[in-house]
Structures are given as structure tokens and as C-alpha cells.
Design brief:
It contains seven helices and four strands. By secondary structure, it is of the alpha+beta class. The chain has three domains: 47 residues, no CATH class; 47 residues; 57 residues. Strands 1-2-3-4 form a four-stranded antiparallel beta sheet. A hairpin with a 4-residue loop joins strand 3 and strand 4. The longest helix is centred in the last third of the chain and has 34 residues. The model has no long low-confidence stretch (mean pLDDT 83).
Length: 169
């Protein structure tokens, strides 16, 4: 699904001036003028200056304002204001795509819901996401297979001992 995204500005370097940052201004953007990079205060910097000073890049959420896809429709729902506030803070710049993905997963049964006490127990075991859960489950299956193989080997060994008439076999 195509998303409506604004074009990148060829005159912007999408980074902040490291000289201004040293002087207490953390958000002075650097503009391109041909091959010259300078901020609004006239500081000229080179690419090596940006690397040396560790210039901060502009956040993608400041550049790419989240837009609905062209097939999306608006749907008003009721939500607790505290939940809304936390989600907007946590998912700034990607809330629409996150909620759309969540709703799509809910609609096609590809989502497993784990909340509250279950989630806390999983986190305490070092499991933080679906990949961790799958790895743990696969590990359990492998361990069970290895256990069964060991028991079969012990059983074969016991039969050999019994056939050799070893006492206690």
C-alpha cells in the first residue's frame, strides 16, 4: 500500500550544526548550498567536521510526517486518555502504522495476546518478544528430542548388558 510521504528536501543535510550545539543551540539545522554545508548562523562545516564533532541527525519523525495509506479510512474509536497519551509518546511518528498493523493482525488471527501477569513472568525469564518465545519453544522441543534419544540409548545399553548376563542389568 503506497503511503503519502513528502519528498526529501535536497537543500537540507538532515543534521544539526555541531558548532551551534557546542554553544548551547541543539537544533540549528544544516543546509546544503552546492557542496557547502552551513547552518542559519553562518557556520560552515565539512563532512569530516560532522563526523569529528558527532553531529546529531534529524529524527526521521521530523522529516517523514506519518500519513495514512491511500486506501485507509478514518475510524473513530473510544480509548482511555492515559493510554492514548502513552501510545502517542511511545510510538511518536509511527502510531498509525503500528495501530494499523495491530488491527490487521487482530483481524486475521495472526496475533497471540499475552498481557499482565503472563507478560511479567515471561519478561522475568528473559523473554521479551515473539522471537524470544519461538526460540524458547524450539529449544524445549530440541531438549525433549535429545532426552528421548538418551533414554533410547540407555535402553539399548541395558539390553546389551542383559544379553551379556551382567548382574543387576
Amino acid at each position: 500500500m503506497p503511503t503519502l510521504v513528502k519528498e526529501l528536501d535536497p537543500s537540507s543535510a538532515y543534521t544539526f550544526c555541531p558548532i551551534c550545539r557546542q554553544n548551547g543551540n541543539n537544533s540549528s539545522p544544516i543546509q546544503r548550498d552546492g557542496h557547502v554545508l552551513k547552518c542559519n548562523f553562518g557556520h560552515s562545516v565539512s563532512g569530516s567536521d560532522l563526523q569529528r564533532f558527532g553531529a546529531d541527525m534529524v529524527k526521521s519523525g521530523d522529516v517523514f510526517i506519518e500519513q495514512p495509506t491511500i486506501t485507509d479510512i478514518k475510524w473513530s474509536i473510544w480509548v482511555n486518555p492515559t493510554v492514548k497519551e502513552r501510545l502517542e509518546k511511545k510510538l511518536a511518528g509511527r502510531i498509525m502504522v503500528t495501530i494499523a498493523t495491530l488491527l490487521a493482525a487482530l483481524s486475521d488471527d495472526s496475533l497471540v495476546m499475552i498481557t499482565g501477569e503472563q507478560a511479567a513472568k515471561l519478561r522475568a525469564m528473559g523473554i521479551h518478544n515473539g522471537a524470544d518465545m519461538l526460540a524458547k519453544a524450539e529449544s524445549e522441543v530440541q531438549t525433549a528430542k535429545e532426552r528421548d534419544d538418551c533414554l533410547n540409548q540407555i535402553e539399548r545399553f541395558m539390553q546389551v548388558m542383559k544379553a551379556a548376563q551382567i548382574p543387576g542389568a
